[in-house]
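DM from R.C. (forwarded with permission)

"hey, sorry to bug you on a friday — could you get me a structure for this? deadline for the figure draft is monday and I only need the backbone to look sensible"
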Amino acid sequence: MTKHKVYTMSFAKVYPLYIAKAERKGKTKAEVDTIICWLTGYSPEELQEQIDKQIDIETFFAEAPELHPSRSLIKGVICGVRVEDIEEETMKNIRYMDKLIDELAKGKKMEKILRGSS
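My reply, with the result:
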């Protein structure tokens, strides 16, 4: 089976797009970082290291220290697909991250985005 194109994209190229989306709606890079660190278990320093290494998105999630157990509480549609219906784990994690950044950009409170935990 051929890898989905998004898996081979550099996380360092996607990351600024998340920040730009948030900033257009009055949110900050720090809030984006908080969300990504919550989801993946990376510390802010480890997140920056991954960005600096120019790793692909698949590796970014494969090397994540600890994917948050509450990520399964993330529900809804992103890119026309219901996240809870995605079966492939890497794609599901990518869409979780997309959904969380989307919620931030839409003005949802951080405690709700992080599913009541930090």
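R.C.: lifesaver. The two ends are 37 Å apart (CA to CA).
me: no worries. Strands lie at 77-78, 81-82.
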